[in-house]
Design goal:
By secondary structure, this protein is an alpha+beta fold. Helix 4 runs antiparallel to helix 5. The chain contains seven helices and seven strands; from the N terminus they run βαβββαβββααααα. It has a five-stranded antiparallel sheet with strand order 2-3-4-1-5. The chain folds into two domains: 91 residues, D-Amino Acid Oxidase, Chain A, domain 2, CATH 3.30.9.10; 62 residues, no CATH class. Strand 2 and strand 3 form a beta hairpin. Bound molecules: flavin-adenine dinucleotide. Flavin-adenine dinucleotide (FAD) binds next to strand 1, strand 5, helix 3 and helix 4.
């Protein structure tokens, strides 16, 4: 129903959640109150380590499935080297994929159907945040159904979510060099990546 085959707008992720032994928990560098995010140099994805008491959730997602295995291995190596995590199990990894809101628009409502959330490809392209757009689109879709004005739904959604992201990508090497240079600028990760992309703060 969404009518798009554009795979450049799909986030692919691998993730694992595992329990820490008492010894591993006491040596784990990741703190309960401080989720850790690590951005890929090309800014096309990020890895994370979240502590949930004696459980750890580790993963990496990006807008480029071809590089996911290599980037994930490099990330795990980095976590070991930096002593954030000593051992990550090799099995029980889970894979995920979902479309983000960039590139060609999907056909999200029509005769007898309406798409919301991931089905409509609404997650933010920079952060992968999809819960808020899923809740918002569910609500707007319900309102449109109640007043029998389905044609309004796509427009009202665009108004609430703002402009779509661009699906254009730089060549891999250039993206790596440029992204690494930007991330090295003091305040860049804080002000643009975290404040703007993740926390939606402006100014
Ligand atoms: C690893 C990972 C981490 C993420 N972290 C965040 C985050 O921190 N913040 C954030 O905002 N977003 C995050 N996202 C994105 C977010 O999870 C999704 O965008 C969001 O859950 C989409 O909501 P949804 O209701 O559209 O789909 P879903 O949450 O996938 O819900 C769809 C539901 O439909 C059920 N279902 C499927 N098929 C059928 C069927 N045939 N019959 C009945 N039920 C069915 C599924 O079991 C599921 O429960 C993350 C995604 C991943 C993969």
């Amino acid at each position: 129903m969404g009518e798009t085959a554009d795979t450049s707008s799909v986030v692919v992720a691998r993730e694992i959640e595992f329990s820490l032994s008492e010894d591993a928990a006491s040596h784990c560098g990741v703190e309960q109150e401080r989720p850790e995010l690590y951005f890929c140099a090309d800014l096309s994805g990020y890895g994370w380590c979240f502590r949930k008491e004696n459980y750890l959730n580790v993963g990496l997602g990006r807008l480029d499935s071809a590089q996911l295995p290599a980037r994930l291995n490099a990330f795990l190596e980095f976590l070991r080297r930096e002593k954030r995590v000593s051992r990550v199990p090799e099995s029980r990894w889970r894979g995920h994929a979902y479309a983000v809101r960039q590139g060609p628009t999907r056909h999200i409502a029509g005769e007898g159907f309406v798409l919301v959330g991931d089905a409509a490809g609404l997650a933010a392209s920079a952060s992968g945040e999809g819960i808020l757009p899923a809740v918002l689109s569910g609500r707007l879709a319900a309102e449109a159904i109640l007043i029998s004005r389905m044609a309004d739904y796509p427009r009202r959604l665009e108004e609430r979510l703002g402009p779509r992201g661009s699906a254009r990508r730089l060549p891999d090497r250039i993206a790596d060099v440029l992204g690494a240079a930007l991330l090295a600028i003091p305040g860049f990760a804080r002000r643009l990546v975290l404040d703007r992309w993740f926390l939606h703060r402006s100014g």
